[in-house]
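GNAT family N-acetyltransferase structure dump, as promised
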Amino acid sequence: MDAKKKYRELCRQEKTIPLFNRDWWLDSVCGENNWDVSLVEKKDAIVAALPYILTRKLGIVVIRQPKLTQCLGPWIRQTDAKYSKKIGHENSLIGELYDQLPKFDYYSQAWNSSCTNWLALYWRGFSQTTRYTYVIEGLSDLEKVFADFESSYRNKIRKADKLVSVSMDLDIDEFYDINMLTFKRQGLSAPYSREFIRRHDRILSENNARKIFYARDEEGRIHSALYLTWDDSSSYVHMVGEDPDLRNSGAGILLIWKAIQYTANELGLDNFDFEGSMLTNVERVRRDCGGQQKPYFYITKYNSRLLRFKDALKALLTKGHR
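structure tokens r here:
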């Protein structure tokens, strides 16, 4: 049995594998034949796994983060070992995983926040940048969660609750349309096609891992939409969209609150992950909704000096034009 088949079987058996590391998720965002995985096995059992996507363009080989995937990185089977042995065990397994990677010119991957030890990669010449997501924990006490929203946001929720009705049966094409309005308002091109989102949504639906919340007023206008995903430990704000002409209704904040309630009451989960953000305006909204900052690692490495110089020059020129 090859590594991918073994990994697919592991994903069916192991609930601790995060959403973005699961085989069906990778099939969706990469394509079934466009990703691979490194495995470490001990006594016929998989103890560590590293899924990755590799692309080749103009002779340049890149291992990168897939579309719509907040984090990836290694999965390591947990043990009851003492701390010193646990760290040594992680160092060894992560080293073995990365030593199996095919030759590349550039590597970039964001790790799950639960992975906090990248020392083995530091020893191998990789670099690390700390990024942040925002997470609301302790959803068993929704009264406290609501109280942790800034007062202005609580008022927005109450106001929006009178203006719109919230449902969870939005057609994926309607969601895509309002999702695109958000990018258009920011002057950004669409990062994915309608066909990509249709396929992605179908796979998530087949795996019972998504709900699409939306707020519609009495005139039939959709103010805001929120695409929620989840695994066995947390839900995630995967995608959002808002009508720029209706942003002041507070519907977007109301949907966050409804998604939090759904996470606690229907999914029985204790964590709600905003999937970021490092953007100034978005980060403030996450904090004002009660999100707590949680760091995660962004790991990179250049093996091509030419590519390193090219990217450094591009960054310098971009900075100079700001």
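The first strand starts at residue 36 and ends at 42.
lmk if u need the other ones
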